[in-house]
Amino acid sequence: MPSRKTVKRFLMLILSTFAVFLLSACSSEQFIVLNPKGPVGEVQANLIFVSFLVLMIVIIPVLLLFFFIVYRYRDKPGNKSPYKPEWDDNVKLEVVWWGIPIILIAILSILTVRDTLVLQGPPSEDVEPITIQVTSLDWKWLFQYPEEDIATVNYLKIPVDTPVQFELTSDAPINSFWIPQLGGQRYSLPGKSSTLWLEAEEAGTYYGTANNFSGDGFTEMNFDVSTVPDADFDKWVEEVKATNQPFTMEDYQELVKPSIVGVSAYSSIPPNLFEFIVDKNGGKYYKSNNHTEQFDNSRQLELGN
Amino acid sequence: MIESIKNFSSDFFVTGDPLIYGADVSIVLVMVAIIFVLTYFKKWKWLWSEWLTTVDHKKIGIMYLIASLLMLFRGGVDAILMRTQLAFPNMDFLPSDKYNEIFTTHGTIMILFMAMPLMFALFNMVVPLQIGARDVAYPFLNAVSFWTFFFGAMLFNLSFVIGGSPDAGWLSYAPLSETQFSEGPGQNYYIWGIQISGIGSLASGINFLVTILKMRAPGMKLMKMPMFSWSVLSSCIIIIFAFPILTVTLGLLFIDRYFGANFFTLAGGGNPMYYVNLIWMWGHPEVYLVVLPAFGVFSEVVATFSKKKIFGYKSMVFALLSISLLSFFTWVHHFFTMADYKVDAFFAITTMAIAIPTGVKVFNWMFTMFRGRIQMKPPMLWTIAFIPTFLVGGATGVMLAVAPADFQYHNSYFLIAHFHQVLIGGVVFGFFSGIYYWWPKIFGFSLNEKLGLWAFWLWNIGFYVTFMPQYALGFMGMPRRVSTYGWDMGWAPLNFISTIGAFLMGAGFIFQVWQIVYSIKHRNKEGAADPWDGRTLEWSIPSPPPEYNFAIIPKVSEQDDWWYKKQKGLTKVKEDYKPIHMPKNSGIPFIMGGFWFITGFGLTFEWTWMGIIGLIGVATSIVVRHLDNDTDYYIPVDEIERTEARIGGTR
Fold first, then answer.
1. How many CB atoms lie within 10 A of CB B648?
2. Chain B within 8 Å of A219 (Cβ-Cβ)?
3. Could you say which of 2.20.25.110, 3.40.50.970, 1.20.210.10, 3.40.50.2300 is the CATH number of the domain covering B43-647?
4. pLDDT, tens digit, for every residue of B493-504?
5. In this structure, are residues B125 and B66 in contact, taking their beta carbons and an 8 Å threshold?
6. Per residue in A207-257, pLDDT tens?
7. The Cytochrome oxidase subunit II transmembrane region profile domain covers which part of the protein (chain A) (predicted)?
8. What's the pTM value of the predicted model, to 2 decimals?
9. What is the CB-side half-sphere exposure of residue B145 using CA atoms within 13 A?
10. Are B373 and A118 an interchain contact pair (Cβ–Cβ within 8 Å)?
11. Which residue from A41, A73, A180 is facing B373, i.e. has the nearest CB?
């Protein structure tokens, strides 16, 4: 048996390594999920804190009780604590510990349902939202701005204090679109378009990533999201329009092929490309897709697929 | 001609990687060593007649144990390779394609070829002894279960050196796992390795359910049955309902891949979301069915080493059964990020609800210790380590169940930390506790406690060092399954710490192997029949038990019957032997497993002729068995007397 001293030293060594690393390397800024920069992320971070707190209120006393029991009833000669080998039932106690988790779960259920409903709509009601159509490909992201008629690959620019409605789909395996500092993720599915509302409150550059494994280049699928004031956003749109080529169907067919690419931007997008992507992957079989315009099959031929 | 053989073999064998060549060499060396040892010591006949053809549940249990420890080694090496790759940013140790293969095989092996067989090892080693039966209800089927599991696992592992490993994740979501994105045999290996061993799992589920319901000793009413057997019963109920879903799902995926159907492909009206739903309709009950028997182990161990009756027996039984039921109503929580919000809210609540019976169990274990006398023996140490680990793991589970917050945890390292905490802290600690507890019963000697203590601390410290930083990494936005990362996100220090922990757990495993080897060499047979002053029937017979387990089937009158018999001095039984009816050994399960292997291998490479030959072999084995009437025999009374005198049975 390792002597108590060795075990203790060993533990100390590990704990101190831990502490050094934690202090030197991780400032709280790096816990991006807990440092949200938008209302959706805030709702979620709050929910994380509250649920953690509620659970700790129960877990910590239980842990203390556990260690107390293990210590007090250990089998040592001279232990004077009571020993009742036949005591195996107590209705009052049982009611208490069926009751504790039930109450706990009830509280958390209420919070869950409340916030699930909150996150359904646009984060700010009084501002006109913008829409961005997101397509996950092997292994890059295509972002289309239908209202601005521009597109970008592997980077996003959005105005601050404006709700953004992301419409997500995939022309590759299932992926997940995640910008931790703005809020939680949502899956991008082939043949389906799903909606994710996010909004930024502060100008800055945030980390975005693919978050559902999609094959060899998955690791490379992260992207920067920069959030800028309204005026700068409009300026940027004009700049993109002025300095880039239009995005054509041929460009798209090229982009769909598995590859890892850098960032790029395009001055215009083919009409209804997003609907085309959804429908070509079987989207026509869903009634729940939220794009209203059914993609016309004759146009599909025209677009070369 | 030579050229075409060359071409074939460069596709067939995985080439170009030193890891794989290393594996090739060691596989060949181990095979040569095994053949040499068996031939040199003239053990071939022994191997065949004592092990490969056995239908004795105890020996089958031992084979399950050996196989699952080997798989724990394989899965553990995978884990260490992954952690090495992630130790520093921008590492080039494993390129992304190899990394993808390794996390896929790590997950699949650990759940299906490590946790499941380790669980079946415990079922086999304990259940018949605990309920006072002479074997399981269907001994031949039990052997079939083992050999289909074994050959399925071997098929899956073969992919590493022949054809290439699967690389679409342990649940292989469609469409990534479809031919369009995953060509080649890897994904077929996944399908057939799991399908073939799945036959064994389902058959075992049925077998143990029937065993428990029909073969309990007289007087052992269900509500007097030991808690471990209750947990096995609950687990078997889940197996029977969950495994057919897996079989169908993988069957459909295979039809997609082999015949070009469109169940889960994009075109033709198929839907990948069907796959995600179906696989988790099996996958979620799966994790509960492996953890329930661990709960059973803890219940036995806590009562035995607190020298006290289990607290709240009825409530424990109710909790077990309600977990079996609830486990089928939570699967959507694996993809809140895909589902509709109303669906999310419903499944968030059902998921949290499962914490209620689980929490109650923790309280009952604690109050079993309360007013008891706790002995810190090895099985109890693992149980005591389990409770706080599982409490925290359960709490993070409830955090994950809060659907809107899950959008931030999903697929991040927070999730990885959570499920490893419940699977290692719950299932692995539980099964280790069980193995330490019942080892003397099955093998007739005890394990060295000093080495076990080293293993215990290394595993525990290693566990916390590995997984606590991963919770933090989740909050730092690190996605699972990334093969490398840069310096910019600040993930480096915590990843490095996590890697240290993985190596500590690896060292813990090495100590366990050492412990087993050491204890085999220095056998300590003292008091192996009832070393822990046990409470249940398995401790009333000699260790290791004779092939028929009980010379005289005990009559049960109490819960913890053996404890009360000892208290009242009623341990002597009248030696009134009768001939014992036993099943005969059979080579058919082994041969049938071999044919399944041929079937699986053929279908993996899409060599239909080979698949058909294999299936004909399987069918022939079944027919041959059906026509065989010579499947049982009686052990005469004088032989029982001789055996009992020799092993000092029937005290």
1. 9
2. yes
3. 1.20.210.10
4. 999 999 999 999
5. no
6. 999 999 999 999 999 999 999 999 999 999 999 999 999 999 999 999 999
7. 25-123
8. 0.93
9. 28
10. no
11. A73
